[in-house]
Design a protein that fits this description.
Layout lengths: L1 E4 L1 H17 L1 H20 L6 E3 L2 E5 L5 E7 L3 E9 L3 H4 L4
Parallel strand pairs: 1-5
Antiparallel strand pairs: 2-3, 3-4, 4-5
C-alpha cells in the first residue's frame, strides 16, 4: 500500500509540530516519531482502525492527543487529517 498525505493533513502536522517545538521542544521530534509509527501501522494493516464516518478511519497517535483520519482504497491509504482530539469533531467531517 502507498501512503498519501493530503495538503491539509500536512498543514495539520506542521501546526502540531510547531506548537510542540515552541512549547515543549524536547517532545517535538517524539511527536513526529509517533506519527511515523502510526502511519506505518496504517499502511501495514489499514482495516485495523475503526471507521468513524462513511469510509473514514481514525487511528490514535500513541502518547499524544492526536488522531489520524484516513481513507483506504485498493492501492493506497490517504491521510485527510491529523487533528488534536479536542478539535477533531469540529474539523474532520468537513474534509
Amino acid at each position: 500500500m502507498k501512503l498519501n498525505i493530503r495538503k491539509e493533513a500536512e498543514q495539520d502536522i506542521d501546526q502540531a509540530f510547531g506548537w510542540y517545538w515552541v512549547n515543549a521542544s524536547h517532545v517535538a521530534n517524539r511527536f513526529l516519531d509517533a506519527l511515523d509509527a502510526v502511519f506505518a501501522l496504517i499502511v501495514e494493516r489499514p482495516e485495523l482502525f475503526p471507521i468513524v464516518y462513511r469510509d473514514l478511519h481514525r487511528a490514535t497517535v500513541r502518547r499524544f492527543p492526536f488522531s489520524v483520519y484516513y481513507r483506504v482504497s485498493d492501492t493506497d491509504v490517504t491521510v485527510v487529517a491529523v487533528l488534536h482530539q479536542h478539535r477533531a469533531d469540529e474539523i474532520w467531517h468537513e474534509r
